[in-house]
Design brief:
With 112 residues, the protein is an alpha/beta fold. It has a single domain, classed as 3-Layer(aba) Sandwich (Rossmann fold), CATH 3.40.50.720. The chain has 4 helices and 3 strands; from the N terminus they run βααβαβα.
Length: 112
């Protein structure tokens, strides 16, 4: 499964290692992605990680199409994040991706 990270520099400005994420397989990491490049770079991704702001309203309204889009996970902004918090989030993200690839269910929010 192809894993694509857009705006990796914002998610990881160079003080964290991408090694564990890259060890999961086919992984492309782009430091900066301009809006016009987003669709091209995301094409073919089985999993896409990005910090792009795609919501015009937070929280999204119940009829927001992104809430029901296949393989779309909306997460909060991380501008507040300290290095320790980002390290923990990166570990959690990698652990969750590993579980997903094993078809294990962890951190299920909606019970489905």
């Amino acid at each position: 499964m192809r894993l694509v990270v857009l705006d990796g520099h914002t998610l990881n400005p160079g003080d964290l290692s991408w090694t564990e994420l890259q060890s999961l397989g086919d992984c492309a990491i782009y430091d900066r992605t301009f809006p016009a490049e987003t669709l091209e770079r995301a094409q073919g991704a089985g999993i896409l990680l990005t910090n792009k702001t795609v919501l015009t309203k937070e929280p999204p309204s119940p009829d927001c199409p992104l809430l029901t889009a296949k393989n779309c996970f909306i997460t909060p902004h991380i501008a507040w994040a300290t290095r320790d918090a980002r390290e923990r989030l990166m570990r959690i993200a990698v652990d969750n991706l590993k579980a997903f690839l094993r078809n294990d269910r962890v951190n299920v929010v909606n019970g489905a």
